[in-house]
Design goal:
Blueprint: H1 2-5, H2 7-20, H3 22-30, H4 34-45, H5 56-73, H6 77-87, H7 90-94, H8 100-110, H9 112-129, H10 138-164, H11 173-186, H12 198-206, H13 214-221, H14 226-260
Helix pairs in contact: 2-8, 4-5, 5-9, 5-13, 6-10, 10-13, 10-14
Length: 263
């Protein structure tokens, strides 16, 4: 409870650090603009005829929404976590009365205002230049907000799990590269999931990648039918609960190994 009472202070410290290193933050943000490349490609494809139910306007709405959701749901704690485990500076965090994963989460969330400063103008632009029917009902907007929070928690948990693998293996970043490749293919980041072959789409709807990006995007753009929202949220938050438990378990096991080697 004391850690959560200190959370607002952690957020302020994290925001100050993000502002201090804003150039680095902007570089990180620019690395998530791949949807703009996909937008150009798929808009060109749809110039002559719709692809499935997607015309050019739908592709513009989808990929601009993808960029916004990606900015607001990403977490990159893996790099800092791996570095601190390898060089031993994690010991400094362990001396503090706040669980390191809580402080990592605050540092990650504190960057969201800066990310939103880039993402929200994109969202406004998307609504202005398309005639797409965006989510507008209170229920769907609330579902989108809940799905966005779930997407961030899944991403954070996975980054924590992969980061803690550094307690046990030399190069956990190789695992992250595999995750990132699967994310690109199965989350809806490069292509709307409904345009994938049937068997690939079925796999994508079961795995967690969709719920880190594609599901919130489908809610925001109105692609997800109303009848599937409750089920989608249930699956997403089931992944949230399971991954948080796994992250905590990996952390405890890794910390024993870290202490055994004099970390």
């Amino acid at each position: 409870m004391s850690a959560w009472r200190a959370y607002p202070v952690l957020l302020r410290v994290g925001l100050a650090a993000a502002v201090a290193y804003r150039a680095e933050m902007i570089v990180w943000m620019l690395t998530t603009t791949m949807p703009l490349v996909s937008l150009a490609l798929w808009s060109a494809v749809a110039a002559t005829a719709p692809v499935g139910r997607f015309d050019r306007s739908d592709f513009v709405a989808y990929f601009l929404a993808t960029m916004v959701v990606r900015q607001l749901s990403s977490s990159w704690i893996i790099w800092e976590l791996v570095q601190e485990i390898k060089n031993g500076t994690l010991s400094t965090r362990l001396l503090k009365p706040i669980h390191p994963l809580i402080s990592y989460s605050a540092e990650s969330l504190a960057a969201l205002p800066i990310r939103a400063a880039l993402a929200l103008p994109v969202a406004v632009l998307a609504m202005a230049i398309t005639d797409h029917r965006w989510a507008s009902t209170p229920a769907r907007l609330a579902s989108f907000a809940l799905s966005l929070a779930g997407a961030w928690l899944i991403t954070f948990s996975v980054m924590a799990i992969i980061g803690t693998l550094s307690f046990f293996m030399e190069s956990s970043t190789s695992v992250f590269e595999i995750w990132l490749m699967c994310f690109m293919l199965l989350s809806g980041y490069l292509i709307p999931l409904e345009l994938l072959p049937g068997w690939v789409r079925e796999i994508a709807y079961v795995l967690p990648f969709r719920y880190t990006l594609g599901f919130p995007v489908e809610l925001l753009t109105g692609l997800e039918p109303a009848g599937g929202i409750a089920h989608g949220l249930f699956v997403e938050w089931s992944y949230v609960g399971a991954l948080l438990v796994i992250a905590h378990l990996f952390w405890r096991l890794g910390l024993r190994r870290f202490g055994a080697f004099g970390g």
